[in-house]
């Protein structure tokens, strides 16, 4: 069928794709499409954790172009054709962690990260909440924007909020992978002058 779309699910074998229609748009949700590599640790588990559905679409880093808008999404925020990156753990906005600025620790079932217990971005078409989408500035590649809500914001929260780093402090960052390198950049942006890095 022409309107069937593919997605990568937790079903084995890993290369299996399942045809599916574009997801229904709950009020306030904005579809976008994007596919990027992720560490597919989900595939190595014998079963998903008991609170996760038995099958869901993988992929926790996503960005794409808006192809449709939910009826409650204001055109002042988004329009068809806008390029957006999607926050990978938007949270419920009602529980204690969410209300304290920690949506990644959301306690409500069904509000975990995209691709981590709820349908993610390894699909040709996905739906997301409008408040989880951020417009991508001109000149930024969509591939770079897709990883920013995960790799960049994780480092930002660690350096700025958890460690509460001040410019006159000396900090050490262990491991210079994607998160560590972003941590160095965030620390420099915050004015830290002495940054010690350690990697093998």
UniProtKB/TrEMBL annotation:
Keyword Hydrolase: no
Molecular function as annotated in GO: oxidoreductase activity; zinc ion binding
Alphabetically ordered keywords of this record: Metal-binding, Oxidoreductase, Zinc
InterPro entries per UniProt: ADH-like_N (IPR013154), ADH_Zn_CS (IPR002328), D-isomer_DH_CS1 (IPR029752), GroES-like_sf (IPR011032), Zn_alcohol_dh (IPR050129)
Bias type Polar residues, positions: 11-20
Gene3D superfamilies xrefs: Medium-chain alcohol dehydrogenases, catalytic domain, NAD(P)-binding Rossmann-like Domain
Alphabetical list of SUPFAM superfamilies matching this protein: GroES-like
Residue ranges constituting the Alcohol dehydrogenase-like N-terminal domain according to the UniProt record: 51-138
Signal peptide location: none
Region (Disordered) residue spans: 1-52
Pfam family, one: ADH_N
PANTHER family attached to this UniProt entry: ALCOHOL DEHYDROGENASE-RELATED, L-THREONINE 3-DEHYDROGENASE
Protein name as catalogued: Alcohol dehydrogenase-like N-terminal domain-containing protein
């Amino acid at each position: 069928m022409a309107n069937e779309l593919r997605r990568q699910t937790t079903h084995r074998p890993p290369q299996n794709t399942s045809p599916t229609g574009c997801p229904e748009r709950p009020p306030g949700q904005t579809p976008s499409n994007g596919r990027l590599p992720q560490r597919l640790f989900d595939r190595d588990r014998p079963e998903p954790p008991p609170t996760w559905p038995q099958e869901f679409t993988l992929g926790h880093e996503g960005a794409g172009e808006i192809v449709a808008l939910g009826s409650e999404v204001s055109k002042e925020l988004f329009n068809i054709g806008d390029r957006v990156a999607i926050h990978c753990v938007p949270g419920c906005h009602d529980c204690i962690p969410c209300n304290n600025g920690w949506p990644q620790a959301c306690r409500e079932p069904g509000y975990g990260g995209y691709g981590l217990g709820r349908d993610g971005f390894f699909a040709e078409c996905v739906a997301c909440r409008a408040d989880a989408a951020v417009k991508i500035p001109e000149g930024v590649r969509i591939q770079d924007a897709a990883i920013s809500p995960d790799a960049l914001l994780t480092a930002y929260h660690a350096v700025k909020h958890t460690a509460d780093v001040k410019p006159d402090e000396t900090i050490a960052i262990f491991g210079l992978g994607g998160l560590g390198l972003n941590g160095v950049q965030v620390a420099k942006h915050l004015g830290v002058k002495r940054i010690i890095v350690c990697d093998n």
